[in-house]
Amino acid sequence: MMPEVNSSSSRAHVDGPPPQGPRYIEPLPAPPHRAAPTPPPVEQTNIRSREVDEVVWDVSRTKDVTLHLELDITEDLEPDLDEFCRLARLGNFQGAKQFFQDNLEQHIDDPYIFVQYAQMLMSMGDYQGVEGLKAPYNLEHSKHLQLQINWELIKVFTALHTEGLSEEDAPLAAEEATSTNTFQKARVKFEQLQAKRDEASLKDDAVDDAESQLGSTECQIVSLALHIEARLHQDKLSIETSILTTIYEELLREGRIWDFRDILIGAVYSYGSTRAFEKFFGSSEVALDRILLDWSTTIHDESTNLALLDILTSVALRRILNPRTFPGTKLWVDEAGILASNIIRYHPSNLKSRQYIRWILAKVAVANYRDMDSSSELSDLPGLFPGRTRGGELPIYVPAALETPDWHLLRRPSKSNETLQTALKAARQLGDLETEAMCLSQLILQAEEPADLFDDLINLQKTIQNDNRPLLKTCLSRYLICHDKVSRDTLREEILSIKGDFGLHPTWLWAKRMVLRALSHSKHEAELLLDEARAFPTPSRNIREFMKRNKLEKENGHLHISDDSKDYPPTASDSMERYEKRKNEKESSRERERMRYEEEESSSRYYERNYHDENYSPSPPHASGGSYYPENNQFPPPPSGSLIQKFVNMKVARPVPPHNLADYTRIPPAPDDPYPRTLATGDNATAKVQAALNSTPNVPPGTEDAVRNTSPKETEPEIPNFRRPPLVSVSSMKEGED
């Protein structure tokens, strides 16, 4: 029996190859279920106190998961702040203000940006601009404590220049500058830093604790506190030398030369250059070398060169100029000149900068220095130049009564006028008000008619800067050119309009009362001002001598003015007449002495008072000074033989003075000398001396060139063997006199 065949299979066989056997299509088995891997335990984290869901990616699941991540994003202002601070450091305040308006003004509510802008206005001398600032509301937040301190010190510093501080407010301001809430907060940083340094030195490790690092804000606080202390004449800061040394080492290690510059200049203002250098370097003698060696670089780094030039120039301008300090000040200016030449060569774009302009001013001040105390014309004035003068500062004259000296006695003409005009133009282009005022002061010292320059300087300090502190000193200096009633009255009103003392030294406040006394309109007003001047405590020695010399002390310090005087003062003729009379008396005395020198015959007995004028006696030949002689300001030597004196009332003859050998070789021996009688004339000299004297004639002094062919060795005689002077008793000498 044949098996049954499927018809479809038969058709397939016809069309193609016979099938190999039955085929079965089975479904693929499902893959075994794999559990998702267990993730490692993750600690629950908090961002802004909110829980974060744990999300794990599983390839077996098709559910989409969307993540939302929120971050606080702020604009990076550091590059803009760096550029703003760079322009301010260069003294390009006009460019810095424009850059701030274009890039940072919209962020003025940021406390740090606000304080930096206020610092820039204070540095340029725009105290009126600082007064117009309004602190942002968030500056009072606790996390901005250092910025609060910085802003408070800026306000105190500005008040010292604008409004002034009363006697009651000055101690409070000094306390504010050095209290626990201000400077002590920064001081804690220094102590922490020093402790970390000491601990690290024991472990030979480095300090990485950010909490103890000294920031730029702390450095600025220290600098401002030192400047305020200097202006208030307080001594409450008293930073220990060890702390300043630690600060210096930290700043040097980090290469922060500009922060070092701020603290050093503040210390120079507060302590003086000598004491400040001792605190930083141990000795003022090595300060210049230490600064140059520690901070100089092998490459000509622009920022470092400018900072070093700033330090050296600022110290030179701050030093007192007198004969004792002048060589040291000149050395600082010369070293600054080397840095200035590097800037000219490698960074010529920085020629228009505060550092370079002030180096020019320091160089001109040193070149034109003149010791006022050594000038005979100035020393003859009845008034006084009080205080200590620094390079380029205007002199202040305190009149004894009503006199006004001639400006030409104080003028310092030089060839640097064109250079100063160029520096003034550059300072105005930079918007550097402080440097502009310094340029005007230098130009005033060289001007023949400085009235217009005085007007420019007063307008700058009064209207633009609102800086009343130097304005008062400028007005006091202007007294030197006020010779008529109109100018004196105008100056009086200008000085009276300046309210406050502005932390000035008592010497200048005393000078203010004395100048107003000379400008006063009545005798009563003058006496009141004189009483105020006497009331200032602990005046200097030269002020006490000035008051005593002019009879201005309290017991008899009233002005002696006749009652019939209608105007007070009508002119300054009274005191100037006394000055002219005193000057003429000195000139007459010098003329009489000169005539005696030229006409009077020399006396044979030089040391005896046998002159016709009993009040006249010449000085000995070795004296110098005090008398007028055209050539060498010395008396001429006495005539020949005048040194031979008669010994009177002497037990033993005086020591034999040096003598000319030619005067003794022809003198016969004395009858009572101990030598044998066989000795001939001239035997008291050696044979060699006699031969030399016989061959060479006696040459008078001043005619040595006449002897051409004589060897120096042959003409130098040996010391003769003088006989011993005889001993003469007093009685025999008296008998001889009889």
UniProtKB/TrEMBL annotation:
InterPro entries: DUF3824. Residues 575-674 form the DUF3824 domain. Residues 1-11 have a biased composition (Polar residues). Residues 28-42 have a biased composition (Pro residues). Residues 1-49, 554-642, 661-681, 693-738 are annotated as: Disordered. Residues 554-567, 575-615, 705-716 have a biased composition (Basic and acidic residues). It holds the Pfam family DUF3824. This is DUF3824 domain-containing protein. It comes from Hyaloscypha bicolor E.
